[in-house]
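anyone else get weird line breaks when pasting these?? whatever heres mine. first is seq + tokens for prot A
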Amino acid sequence: MITQVQLPTQAQIKSLVDEATSKVGREVFLENNLRGIKTMLDSNPSLYHHYGPYWWAVKGLLVANGVLDGQEDEPITREHFKFDDPIYTLCAAWAYHQHQIESMVINTNLHYFDLDGEPYEYALEDLEMETWAKSRKR
């Protein structure tokens, strides 16, 4: 089950958060990061797949901040992959996104996790994003 996936602790990503916010501050980082994600999605909506299960928490931030329209949600997954602080959510999601790219696991909606020695496959599908991606291919 997706809620058994171990997330990094805040202590584990604190240095990433500190680095991300050190030059621009928290509010500017949040605004710039959300706009950057939207720009990436404008160029290729399918790139949402790289966020894996973090997508739902990222999408929630995009929608809450008026950067993206959308209603499709996976509440259980969103809540599990969301930190109390949106900056931590974005940094954890970015780290996962980067890990996917560096591992050459791209252009797939399938994400694999180890749950106490047992493999677990998570299939990400946001029908709003899939519709947007298909409409751009025409």
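and prot B, same format (seq, then tokens)
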Amino acid sequence: MKEEIKDKLRQHAGKILLGGTGALLALSVVTLGASLLSDGPAASDTQADAVIQKLEGNLGDARAKLATQHTALLVQLPGMDIERVNRDRATGRSLLLSLTDSSASTRTVKEQQVLLDTRYGFLDHKSRVLTEFVPEWMTATGATKGAGTTYTLADLDIGVSRVQGLNYSYTGVARLDPVRVGPDQNSAAKSEFLVFTYSTSQDGTVTSLDAYRASSKTRDALAAASEEQPSLKPTG
């Protein structure tokens, strides 16, 4: 029973951190909002700006505190190498950027597939990343008609999903915001959300990778949720 509890804690440590951040932010909003409203309709723009700045400061402090607690939790879990987790998270961020930078390139789908196949030994011609994700991503972002939309990585949350011996598996959720829209694209381009999974061996070598682009319905739901509760900023 004790080992089952530890396994569940390991798998959901990221959710604990995210939930704690939301709770602390909500508490700050209630407290500071009440302070502002107590001054009545005459509250000035200066007061409003001060509240916003204080909220941002409180959120930053809350994130830092919860990140420390999250690290401490991982260290306490049996078999968890926190240094390796941090290294693998940086690897995951790099993988994500490699998959998505094609949106602003002039490469064809075939050229992008060959590039990734050559760069990463764990991918082959049957990989879903190459056969499904790459064509869908480049089509959706306008890259199949030349340089498409350029995105910036706005949010990234990567958590350990499984530890099996010396192999670690991760699940990541990323939000990419458009910063420059291609000439053949709608100027009202929306944020894109991606879910990706990958595994690493003890020496940090990536052994598997998969990626999914959120559907329009899921994207809109995630976008609405992110407006209500800020997520974690990119790590690694």
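btw re prot B: The chain has a mean pLDDT of 74. Strands lie at 150-164, 167-180, 192-200, 206-213.
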